[in-house]
Structures are given as structure tokens and as C-alpha cells.
Amino acid sequence: MTPPSTQDPLALSLPESATPAPALRAAASVPPPLGLLAELTHRCPLRCPYCSNPIELARQAAELDTATWLRVFREAADLGVLQLHLSGGEPTLRRDLPDLVRGAAEAGLYTNLITSAVTLDAARVNALAEAGLDHVQISFQDADPASADRIGGYAGGHAKKLTAAAAIRAAGLPLTLNAVVHRQNLERLPEMIDLAVALGARRMEVAHVQYYGWALANRDALLPTRAQLDAATATIDSARTCLKGRLTIDYVVPDYHAARPKACMGGWASSVMVVAPTGRALPCHAAESLPNFDFPDVRTHSLAAIWNHSEAFNRYRGTAWMTGPCAGCPNAEIDWGGCRCQAHALTANASNTDPACALSPHHALLATALEHATTTHFTYREPGRPPAR
Amino acid sequence: MSLDEASQPRLARGFRLRQDAARGRTVVLGPERVFEADETALATLALIDGERSVATIIDTLVAQYVAPRAEIAGDVLEMLADLVERGVVTS
Fold it and tell me: What is the ipTM of this complex?
């Protein structure tokens, strides 16, 4: 699947004082989640080398059934979730997708389909629109078809996406174009923005690759240079100005060139809950990479119990768990210590300060990684074939 | 995209008003976005339907609230222009 933006919780922006005040956070009850990311399946025709699914992919036989997902959606709405992101893997590989959309819409949830779109045709798009789908986000791997097909590891994929995007607009559904950017496609960011406008997207998400799991295994082939990052930032700034009112661009910056870490998911278990295909509830899509966690199962626990009371969701909530430079840091409630998965992936301790922070004793690891990023070879995502590290 | 009193604005496709019972408020939901609507915004958004003109909306609000028309017109036009720029409202 397309890596969700970890900069903001699913790029959820709450410009008008919707974020709970610090005083509320400290209260006994936990503010409810705004979003539910439902990873319906890990199956996917694409093989993107930066896939945000875990290295250990769930098999189809282990996926939650229709009735369980529908119950999860109703529980989410009751808990206070407003938006449901139907993702994967490739969510359209679930034959019951229209039923899932209908059930979610009946529960009052805003439904957002996050898809590669290579399996969508006009008939399937119309069935989803009919079921009450609110919005579609299509991932594009590049603006150049040959490069896009190479990055996705799927011949002819780019052309299928163009056809699907037209079908989505013809059905009257609003469209977001998601572009995951890295060293091998950043030169064509202006063309990717042009593509979003040409396809009638009203929103675009430009997300630099975040380095966990498959992306970490491909880091040497993906990390952008400083010059590429600066050029991309300038491109985004100018496009935002000249496309104001026509295209909204959300931009997820990479943290390997940063001095301060990202506020990953807006803070651990603060506004989004993820449910993996097997029913495991997670505070973020990459959390299954963390050892020594007992992530609760939605088949045996209610979403409310998981969100409010589970040890896994409470472990890194707030600031009390912080150590090292995070403890007492004036930015502690701005970046929430950065990303637990990155801390674990790079320092082998998920409780450490994210090495993206210049105050981390491990910060030099990032500069070293940038120096080593010279290959163009991809290790593609393959079920049952974890990448050599 | 410019907006004036003759415009007939409506919520853009993909955006809708919804009660947020868990938090005791009304919100505008859109793609990856949640906007909290204050009282003025709510009163205006409840009236936009793609048919009513901005002038009609202002007149309706003038009848509801005790404030000079010029003041309400300024607030409404400014808010709608901002929402058009953010892609929430089309005119």
C-alpha cells in the first residue's frame, strides 16, 4: 500500500482548534480517535520497494471476514471515529468492498478508499460510488509511465491508473493523487503535479518515503539528496501559490535531512487507530515491527477497550514514558519524541529519542545513511520473501 | 473562482456537514480533513446549496442576527472566499 502520511495523523489537519487542549489530554479519559485506517488485506498486484506493509505479510486466509469488519466500523463510529480509510495492500482485491463501504456509510463514517487503482474499472467504481463511497485516493509511482511501472514492479500499471482515474471522475467522486517521492522520481515532481491537475484531482499528497520495513531495506536506492529535497520544497511552494483554489497540496517531508523529528501520527495513539488485515489493532501502520508488544485483536476486544485501556496503546501516550533528550524537552508536546518505529529500526530501542532529532546521540546514523545512498537497485516487495538486510 | 454576492456557492463534492456527537460539535468532513465549524460558519454552511445566492444568504442571516448588513456581508464573503481557496466550497 501507499505509506500513509506520518507527518500529520493521516494528514488530518485541524485548523480550527479541533485538537484537544493539553489540559484535556491529561484528564482521566482518553480523547477518542478521529480516524480508523482499515488495512483490509496485504495482497497487492504492485511490488513497490517502499511498501509500508510489514515484512511479514498476512495471508488471505488470515484476513478478517466481512461481518467482523462491519462490526469494527460500527464500534469505531460509536467511539467517535469520523473518517474511515480503506486501505491495504490493495483494498479493491476484497470482493466484499462495496458491502464494506455501504456498512461504513450506514454507520455515518466518511469513507476514503486508498488504492493503487490498477484493478478498478468503471463498473467497480460505479458500484463503490453507489455504495456511498466519499472519496478516492490513487497512488502514482511517477509521471513517466516506464519509470512508474518499474518502481511499482507492475508492467502496464500506470496506464491502468489513468483509466481508473477517469472512471472515478466520471462517477463524480472526488480524487486525491498520492505521489510517494524519492531519489529516483523526484526530478519529475513538477510533471506529477501537472498530472494531478490533468486528472481532475482537487487534492494531492506528496509524501517522501518513510524508512521502515521494505523502504528501510531499499533505503540506499531511495534516499533523496539535499539538493533534490530543496528543489522539491521550492516546487511545492510555487505550485501551492499558483494552484490555490484548484489543487490543495499536502506535503510530507523526509526526516533524514531534518534536525527535528516528525510528530509521527500526531503522537502515539492520539488520533488514529490502525487495524491490520488479521485483526490486530495498532497505533500506527508500522507498529507490528516493534518487538515485545502484545497488540490487541479486534476479534476478542472492543475498539473502545483497546483504545482506552490496552497496554500497547498506552505505552507511549503523552510524555511520561520519555527518556534521554526527550525528557523535559520543550518540544516534547510538539513532536512527541518522533517515531517509535524509526527509533527501534535505527537504535534497536523503541523508547529512544527518534534519531531524526539532532539532540539524539544516534543522529549521525542518518548522515551516514545518506552517504551510502548510491544504488539504483530495488529489492521488490514479495510475500514470503523478506529482504536481506 | 472569484466570489461575490451573485455567486451560488455549494459544498465541494467530497465535503459534508456532520454532527460529531462524541465531541459535541458540528464538523465539515472532507478528504483527510476535519474542519470544526463555529456558529457563524455553521449558519452560513447550512444555507449554501448551489442555488441560493450569496446575497440571499446574507439577507437571511441579517434577519436572524442583530447586526448591520455590511458587517455580516463582510464576514460571510471573507469566510466563503477562504473556504473556496481551501477547496471546501465551490461557486
Answer: 0.87
